[in-house]
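Homework help board

Subject: predicted structure for assignment chain

Our instructor gave us this sequence and asked us to write out the predicted structure in token form, then describe one feature. I got the tokens but I'm not sure how to describe them. Can anyone check?
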Amino acid sequence: MVIFDSSVLIDQFSDRLLYRRIADLDDLVRTSAVVLAELWRGGTTQAEQAVLRALERRHPILTPTEQNWLESGSILGKVQRDYGFEGRKLRELHFDVLIALTLEATEPE
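My token output:
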């Protein structure tokens, strides 16, 4: 299964061939609601918004559950206690932890 992080997609957002490359993948492609939210926040051009709408329509969207949100807070609390990360760094990591937990819950056993 392939799921793209916003940092990967954002670098190629303005590239009109982006969706074609995604569509040509042989792997199962999923989209994260967390990633889509991040991209919509910065998707200002019509071309970028068209890519986002295509991702929403053509690939199932994985959405964090209530349990994923609660567990992400617990994990980040432990990271803060164990490593002393500041609040800003924890906020930067939060969406990545949510994406990982969402993927973990959808992996076939």
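Reply (TA_rk): Your tokens look well-formed. For the description, you could write something like this. The mean pLDDT is 85. That's the kind of observation they're looking for.
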